[in-house]
UniProtKB/TrEMBL annotation:
Mg(2+) 2 binds at residues 110, 113, 273. Mg(2+) 1 binds at residues 88, 110, 112. It comes from Devosia geojensis. Residues 191-324 form the Fructose-1-6-bisphosphatase class 1 C-terminal domain. SUPFAM superfamilies: Carbohydrate phosphatase. Pathway: Carbohydrate biosynthesis. This is Fructose-1,6-bisphosphatase class 1. Its EC number is 3.1.3.11. It is found in: Cytoplasm. GO terms for cellular component: cytosol.
């Protein structure tokens, strides 16, 4: 891809089909570009370490969680098309002051996912989802299934900064250049249907359900097992890093419901982790399930609802689904 197509030029060419929606994505990208700059020198600026507060998830907030959340509030608050921000770092939805009837979009985001990896310089990311909301929407209007997303994506702050974006039909990748512009570097991402790489936190084996146990056992058995091929395992502990690898070369990511997370509905959050990642994966030809149904069809009951997440290469997700079907049939 020789020509340098900037994100703004790509949006102007009509990718979003709606100039206001394009402006929402541009505001999100501006927040991510500023977060990337802050992260690059954070240890020098004394921005590593804890903020001294606990967020709604009960997690110790890092200073950079707060800084990233503030940058989303700044950039999204400046865009009159956006009326509501749902954030992992905010207990309640934030309603921006808007003219009567203005502000048709809400953004749900995890401003800095995987922040436990910051101190060891491992890729972290910002995850975002865009939905339409009526002006003056009440909380119930925010609780929309992932099929209603108008755009979704993430920024991966790694050796380069990638912005990975979909409006539901295809997936494009932009890379942040030295001047702070996102440049189109890949388009039409397709996840290979077959893969031999799975991502799961294997230390949780004692909590797994029967379907997860059976899927992993088959993968570990390699050529001698029912899967009939050798597998490799990767687990970064940063969802954006694991999902980016899967979008780039295939694989499957599993954070299933287990005996420890079941009481909370799962580990990962539906509206600003599972749904945006599922829209990306499905737009790239993959599949995304809770094990008991399509993630994008889950009806949220709360903005911080958690859910089981199993997504990636279609053939691998189908193998997991076969094990769930078998165990549910036995139940
Ligand atoms: P565990 C990071 O805290 C996160 O939300 C995701 O980015 C990541 O995939 C997962 O949790 C890691 O969970 O249980 O391995 O620490």
């Amino acid at each position: 891809m020789n020509s340098r197509t900037t994100l703004s030029a790509w949006l102007d060419q009509g990718a979003a089909h709606d100039p206001a929606l394009a402006s929402v994505v541009a505001s999100i990208a501006a927040a991510c570009a500023e977060i990337a700059v802050v992260l690059r020198t954070a240890p020098i600026e004394g921005l590593s370490g804890l903020a001294g507060a606990v967020n709604v998830q009960g997690e110790d907030q890092k200073q950079l969680d707060v800084v990233s959340n503030d940058l989303f509030i700044k950039h999204l608050g400046e865009n009159p098309a956006i009326s509501i921000l749902v954030s992992e770092e905010l207990n309640q939805a934030l309603q921006f002051e808007r003219e009567a009837g203005a502000g048709r979009y809400m953004v749900a985001c995890d401003p800095l996912d995987g922040s436990s990896n910051l101190d060891v310089n491992v890729t972290v990311g910002s995850i975002f989802s865009v939905l339409a909301v009526p002006p003056g929407a009440d909380d119930a209007a925010l609780l929309q299934p992932g099929t209603r997303q108008l755009a979704a994506g993430y920024a991966a702050y790694g050796n380069s900064t990638s912005l990975v974006l979909t409006f539901g039909k295809s997936v494009a990748v932009f890379t942040l250049d030295a001047k702070g512009e996102f440049i189109l570097t890949r388009d039409g991402i397709a996840i290979p249907a077959a893969s031999a790489e799975y991502a799961i936190n294997a230390a949780r084996e004692r909590f797994w359900d029967e379907a997860t146990r059976a899927y992993v056992a088959e993968s570990v058995a390699g050529e001698t097992g029912a899967a009939g091929k050798r597998y490799n395992m990767r687990w970064v502990g940063s969802m954006v890093a694991d999902i980016h690898r899967i979008l780039m070369r295939g694989g499957i990511f599993l954070y299933p419901l287990d005996s420890e997370t079941a009481a909370k509905g799962g580990r990962l959050r539906l509206m600003y982790e599972a749904n945006p990642m599922s829209l990306l994966v499905e737009a790239a030809g993959g599949r995304a399930t809770t094990g008991r149904g399509r993630i994008l069809e889950v009806q949220p009951t709360g903005i911080h609802q958690r859910v089981a997440v199993i997504l990636g290469s279609a053939e691998e997700v189908e193998r997991v689904e076969r094990h769930y079907a078998a165990t549910l049939a036995d139940a």
